[in-house]
Specification:
The protein is of the alpha/beta class. The protein has 6 helices and 7 strands. Strand 1 and strand 2 form a beta hairpin. It starts with 8 loop residues before the first strand and ends in a 5-residue tail after the last strand.
Length: about 210
Amino acid sequence: MENVSQKQFFIGLSLAPNQNYDSGVAVINNNYEIILLDKLYSDEDIEFFFKNFNSIENSVIAVSLAQDNSLLDGKWRMSAKSYKELSNHFEVNANNWTNRLTPRSTRFFHNMFLEGNCIFRYFNFQLRQSLTLTPNYPERNSLDCKDIQTSLKIKYGFNLPDNMLPASNLEGILGAIMAQKISNGANYKKIGKFKELDILQLENKLN
């Protein structure tokens, strides 16, 4: 990414597969101070947030890649049964059955990029490995969330509440940290593209 070294705000969005789940957004500065924490649900909520954040041109934005959970719907299970005879007109990717990642809000994010905003995509699990916060428990359960929250307090000095934050907010903070690291010169590599946006990964494990 170019021209990110002078940015002052770092936004992490842990994107949920759909609006039935909460997407966590976090904004931090270079001193690891939390400017904003929030939960977003609908695509309209996400667009409203970015359109109304008054320092968007002075920000680096990291958006996670969310799994497409439409594979789990009942129609796919019925059509995928091994003993079901398929007609010659069967569509392999009918209803986007083979999509691994959800294309949610990708057009909006691409438009943000075309408008000159510094925005990229990343994988949550890879980021946790790079930040040496690899899960010790099943992801997103209460022990895992407590582990992340404690690590963020000790390792980065975040002033977080004693009560447990939602998993989406904790993941949003991790995304914001990645944006801050890249802005401050951390080594990273491009590992692919998704809907015209680069997918980035930090190259080395960071302490």
